[in-house]
Amino acid sequence: xxxxxxxxxxxxxxxxxxxxxxxxxxxxxxxxxxxxxxxxxxxxxxxxxxxxxxxxxxxxxxxxxxxxxxxxxxxxxxxxxxxxxxxxxxxxxxxxxxxxxxxxxxxxxxxxxxxxxxxxxxxxxxxxxxxxxxxxxxxxxxxxxxxxxxxxxxxxxxxxxxxxxxxxxxxxxxxxxxxxxxxxxxxxxxxxxxxxxxxxxxxxxxxxxxxxxxxxxxxxxxxxxxxxxx
Amino acid sequence: xxxxxxxxxxxxxxxxxxxxxxxxxxxxxxxxxxxxxxxxxxxxxxxxxxxxxxxxxxxxxxxxxxxxxxxxxxxxxxxxxxxxxxxxxxxxxxxxxxxxxxxxxxxxxxxxxxxxxxxxxxxxxxxxxxxxxxxxxxxxxxxxxxxxxxxxxxxxxxxxxxxxxxxxxxxxxxxxxxxxxxxxxxxxxxxxxxxxxxxxxxxxxxxxxxxxxxxxxxxxxxxxxxxxxxxxxxxxxx
Lengths: 230, 238
Fold this sequence. Notes:
The structure holds two protein chains of two kinds.
Chain A lengths: L1 H12 L12 H8 L15 H6 L4 H24 L9 H23 L1 H15 L2 H9 L6 H31 L1 E2 L2 E2 L3 H5 L11 H18 L8
Antiparallel strand pairs in A: 1-2
Helix pairs in contact in A: 2-8, 4-5, 4-6, 4-8, 5-6, 5-7, 7-8, 8-10
Chain B lengths: L5 H45 L9 H8 E7 L16 H4 L9 E8 L2 E11 L4 E8 L6 E8 L13 H5 L17 E3 L14 E3 L5 H16 L2 H9 L1
Helix pairs in contact in B: 1-2
């Protein structure tokens, strides 16, 4: 009993597992790269769809959201992984929620004091991070059972996979919907003179679903092992 | 201690709650002053932006005191209530009172020899509050400039009211119709003048997909300006 306890303690205190595998071993790299394709949170796990609809009208909020989710997921995975041998099993979901929510509140306060302009752009989205099911999903499925470094990679990787799709969708919606990229006009005036018009439908949420659907289609056509067998 | 026992769960939960609550409270109270300053300076920046003066947040206070010559807290009959600090009036609270108890803040700016009258606005968009400032020229009719902001309108649609191209379309428009009745500005879907060349039509072009936010902007302008008519009428006679 005592020996087991000490073993647990050791693994939670050291950042690297006892086997001393290199920081970026093949397994660890897979934690970062898998969510980008084979195990993408949006197109494969179908998590975080709601925020993907809301903030992909323009490229800029999508980029900003990606960065914030990466920060929050990296940090919350590390904290929960550090505490994983202390968290009582029965209230673990509440503990995870508290960790995420207080991190988000902290970031919100600090931005408001020191980077007010960023805060003004972000304040709506920062609240949305707490409700993002990917964050809680990774805490529950990964950070509770794995070491600190691995959990960190998993958090950042999944956030990147989420953000990758977000930015891709936002790219097409902004380009086709308002003829702009990152707020700058990219479709030259003479094309409009020839009769081209921006497609207002792209700005509405249903087209985000359709766009995500097309990505899923392309991904599965390319990557056959994702197709369900029945 | 057994991780699944009730006692352990209680102790863990209590420590967690105390730790989290105190750290959040500590951050909040230590950053409060800085945050307040930011909000205050931003308000000054916005007021100045309506008359075409753009400043950094740091120098906002200095330029504000230079150009804003008068701050008035008007009663509904157009007289000034000197007991109220204009800058600290919160429209959010004020709007909940009956008309006769409200105080209507008005900022008077002078740039070179021109005088401008800046009225704070507040209303409702699609999701939540929208607000802003509108500056009128000395004829109490022509718009010098506007600034809008919002709490949580949809990015790319309603949130576009904060963009220059939308705010610029208000410049030079008239808030009175040809018979000098107050009509405000209609953010119009059926505007026949999308380039905004006709400055007498009391209309600006709306934002596609943001009809309700646009209506909110129209409503808040006419609702707020209406309360200043007695003061404006008085000033016109002088």
